[in-house]
Amino acid sequence: MTVITWVVEGTWAACVDATRRLAPDNADIVLLHVTGGDVSAAAHGAYAGLLGRGPRRDRDPGPRLAELGAASAAELLEAAARALGRPCTTVERRGRVEREVVAVAEGADLLVLARDGDDTRLGPKSLGPASRFVVDHAPCPVLLVWPRETPGTGSIPPPPPHQHPHPPHPPGPGSPR
Amino acid sequence: MLGEVAAEAVSVAMLALVLGFAVVRPWGWGEAVAAVPAAILVIALGAVSPHRALAEAERLGPIIGFLAAVLILAQLCQDEGLFRACGDWMARGAGKRPTRLLIRVFIVASVTTAVLSLDATVVLLTPIVFATAARLNARAKPYVYGTTHLANSASLLLPVSNLTNLIAFAASGLSFPRFAGLMLVPWLAAIAVEYVVFRRFFKTDLNVTPAPTQAAETAGLPVFALIVLVLTLAGFAATSLAGVNPAWAAAAGATVLGVRALVRRHTTPAAVWRAAGVPFLAFVLALGIVVTGVTENGLAGALMRVMPSGTTLPALLATAALAAALANVINNLPAVLVLLPLAAATGPGAVLAVLIGTNIGPNLTYAGSLATLLWRRVLREHGQGEPDLAEFTRLGLLTVPAGLVLATVALWAGLKVIGG
Q1: Strand (E) or helix (H) holding B171
Q2: Long-range CB pairs of A133-138, under 8 A, 24+ apart, other chains included
């Protein structure tokens, strides 16, 4: 079976840990990192907005950020592979992060990813927009792990006090009076 | 001599050509390639008299010299390792708290923009901010976007913070300390708006606890460069109060750092020359002459009717909004050249309101220009991926109107308290 582990800055350690513990011994493990083009494009745009400075590649921060991004992605995947301590392949992609992840997961048997939203309020917002998209559109089963210690069931708020949104059912024909 | 209508038509056509060329950048040529011939053409065709062109050159000359000195100063600070040291400082204080890193990035980006101009922030600081986030294993987006935003909105404080300020400063009649005094609270207000919006907008990315993968090696603090910078800043105030152009203080700072770096072989004469950005300086002069043709052959009269006069709060708000709109249509550099003569007639308050508009306004649209679609094409050609335009615009809509209003109210209050 093929297990794709999505490696993201800040939350990857928990995904790698879960993969090491839960993926079967014979699984083909793929560590995937996607670099979004938007950050280097924003830097390039900031330079492009400076009228008159000319198209100087040595001054434009866009290409420099793209280089730095590639280097940091390679380091991250290397660190993740080391932490996994099992045979694996690493895949680095560039583009729209959530769409690239879904595309790589096509045909896989399991996708491992971490929650990355607001983990102080457990609920829909504990998934950020990109992970939300991936969970919604993943073409394979998904293993969703906590980037920190898994909260116990004690963190579930008490159920709301019973309210009567509808009037109580009228007593049926057989019910006691 | 051309009639006024023909002269205006020629000037507008030349300005459109200069701006269009800047957007399309055919064959990868720089903006000066079109701007310098366009300026020569408006003079040759009589849309701007040689006498008037000379007067414009005399006006812009010292400003361009000032700009060159600041550009060189920033590059020399980079060569001395000042920005690397900033990266260390940001990383050290961040610990495992992304919001602390954001605060430090905001401080460094705001101070860099204010002291060494927005060029330094965009060109020299942005890669450092990205590298710092990467080395902390944090998500770079909020910090890089914050840096690019602050390059504009935190460029209000000093005349050296933005070329628009340098141009306006010369026309405002304000001293360097007075300019800074009036702009201090608007500057802080604009930064505060950015911070509040960024904290909420990037909540997801700022919630992820970074876990550094590599031990950071730290570079030493470039004490000499820092001392020269502080002395240069003091020199700005001192020269201005003594009635001397503060450009000399910038030149002195650049000379001290430059000679030392040359002696120690940290830089070369060719690198210093490149840092000055001579084609850029030529572009500014040429653009000034072309815009003179546009304003003095009719646009000034037309704008006079829509340009608010006076320094009441509604008039200042309208001035800032007009400047912001124009900065988004034709970029902020030509916008300030167009609006300045009109604002200067009203007084320093109106000039500073124009700057609030032209400096904060560009964050509204990607690359500060309505030619966003063309920029996108340029980006694809560069193969660096695309910005998420919807996200960028939402961020602009959240920060720019609020920043404009708060900064202008702060300016109005400052004018009441300190006086123009």
Answers
A1: helix B163-172
A2: A133/A98, A133/A99, A133/A102, A134/A6, A134/A98, A134/A101, A134/A102, A134/A105, A137/A98, A137/A102, A138/A102, A138/A105, A138/A111
Please give the residue of chain B at the shortest CA–CA distance from A49: B367
Q: State the burial class of residue A118 (Cβ atoms within 10 Å of its Cβ: 0-12, 13-18, 19+).
A: middle
C-alpha distances in Å from residue A106, one per residue of A23, A35, A87: 18, 19, 21
* E strand map for A128-169: 142-145
Cα B210 to Cα A107: distance, rounded to the nearest angstrom: 31
CB contact under 8 A, B141 and A39: yes
- Which among A52, A3, A10, A49 is positioned nearest to A29, based on CA atoms? A3
Q: CA-CA-CA-CA torsion for A130, A38, B202, B322, nearest 10 degrees?
A: -130
Kindly list the residues from chain A whose CB atom is less than 8 angstroms away from the CB atom of residue B210.
9-10
Residue B192 has pLDDT above 70, yes or no: yes
β-bridge partners, A94: A35
Q: For chain B, state the CA radius of gyration.
A: 21
pLDDT score for B143: 96
Mind listing the pLDDT tens digit for each residue in B101-135?
999 999 999 999 999 999 999 999 999 999 999 98
A126/chain B closest Cα distance in angstroms:
9
How many residue contacts between A and B have a Cβ separation below 8 Å? 167
**How many CB atoms sit inside 10 A of residue B386's CB?**
15
Q: What is the pLDDT of residues B224-281, one digit of tens each?
A: 999 999 999 999 999 999 989 999 999 999 999 999 999 999 899 999 999 998 999 9
Domain ranges of chain B: 1-47+284-297
Going by DSSP bridges, is the β-strand pair A142-145/A110-114 parallel, antiparallel, or unpaired? parallel
The two tokens of residue B76 are 């020399």
Residue type at position B183: M
> Whole-prediction pTM value?
0.90
Whether A88 contacts A79, CB under 8 Å? no
Q: What are the structure tokens assigned to B408, written together? A: 């202008």
The top-level CATH class assigned to A2-155 is alpha beta
DSSP A162: P
Predicted pLDDT of residue A121: 73
Which tens digits make up the pLDDT trace of B353-402? 999 999 999 998 866 555 554 555 555 555 556 667 788 889 999 999 99
Q: Which residue has the tokens 């993943």?
A: A138
Q: Is B270 on the interface with A (CB under 8 A)?
A: no
| Closest by Cβ to B130, choosing from A47, A54, A68 | A68
**What 3-state DSSP class applies to B250?**
helix
What is the torsion angle, in degrees rounded to the nearest 10, for the CA atoms of residue B194, residue B195, residue B201 and residue B202?
130
B405 touches B317 (CB < 8 A): yes
Task: Give which of B402, B337, B347 is closest to B167, Cα–Cα.
Answer: B337
Are B30 and B283 contacting, i.e. CB atoms less than 8 angstroms apart? yes
R_g of chain A, CA atoms, integer Å: 23
Percentages (nearest 5) of helix, strand, coil residues in chain B:
80, 0, 20
